[in-house]
Amino acid sequence: MPISKEERASQAAKHLSFVKGVFSKETDESVQSTIIYEDGEARSAQLPEPNADSTTTNVTTAFATSALHNASGKIALVDAASFTRPGGAYEDGTFGPEQVLCSESNLYPVLQGIKPLYHSKNRGYACGQLFTDRAAYVKNVVFNRKGSIRKADVIVIPGPNRTRALENHRSERECDASLANRITTLLNIAALQEIDTLIVGAFGCGRQGFPANQVITQFKDWIDTHPGSIANIVFAVPRVHFETFNEAFGIPEPQTTTEPEVKQEEELFDPSDLPEGVTLR
């Protein structure tokens, strides 16, 4: 049975109290080391040489935090973040991709710590709910799942909201350009930071209003243009989008070849093979 918003708010309060007490040092270090990428900065940056020959992709319906514990190398997760409010409405019991990240890490107090540097300076730039490419790169966020501790970096960047933007009289062309620029930005940041494994959700899909195939095309175009710039990309997507993403980015199932059945030739009967004393009549 799904838990209520009030119950999630209570869980959030307990979790926040825990991480503030246990991971206060790590939180302060993450706040101090956060890098801000201004609008357009990462998109126009010169990327380093690829660290792999090609980019491997995989798709899962597990939460991004679950995918993290199965990943290797230098890892970054994409936080499709609230543009002006740290963690969205996490403390109020809201449930979504950003709140899932907050619920299993010290990300929320880190976001609160960078609010003057990031969220507050974003005010006035909502652009009809398309927002901008301004992003925060947070280092060494501590993720804790049932006592298993993993550290990973987090790319904090807002997803453009096509549905709301159209209601605010923004054009389809503006929406499409925002999506393309945002995906290029987050992938470029991962490449600039020499990430081995990037974990990203169905960025722009669902309530954000972009069709899954459009989102997939943007990711594929970047991967084809920059093969190996990110060694591994894991798409942690809801079940409703799994089939579409898996068709594009899933690991192909190995094809099994069936050996043709070889019919054995029947041995010819030789009367001389009969035991001594036995004759045919």
Structure, described:
- This protein is of the alpha/beta class.
- It has 10 helices and 7 strands.
- The longest helix is centred in the middle third of the chain and has 21 residues, at 172-192.
Instruction: Write the H/E string, N to C.
Output: HHEEHEHHHEEHHEHEH
* Nearest-integer average pLDDT: 92
The residue fraction in helices comes out at: 25-40%
Stretches where pLDDT is under 50 for at least 5 consecutive residues are none
The general outline is: globular
Major sheet? 7 strands, mixed
Distance between the termini: 82 Å
**SS content category:** alpha/beta
Strand content: 15-25%
Which quaternary structure do these chains form?
Answer: single chain
What is Rg?
A: 26 Å
Describe what is shown at a glance.
By secondary structure, the chain is α/β, with parallel strands linked by helices. The chain has ten helices and seven strands. About 40% of the residues are buried.
Which characteristics define this entry?
281 residues, alpha/beta, 10 helices, 37% helix
Task: Give me the secondary-structure topology.
Layout: H1 5-22, H2 24-33, E1 35-37, E2 56-60, H3 64-68, E3 75-80, H4 97-103, H5 107-113, H6 119-122, E4 135-145, E5 148-157, H7 162-167, H8 172-192, E6 197-200, H9 212-225, E7 232-236, H10 239-249
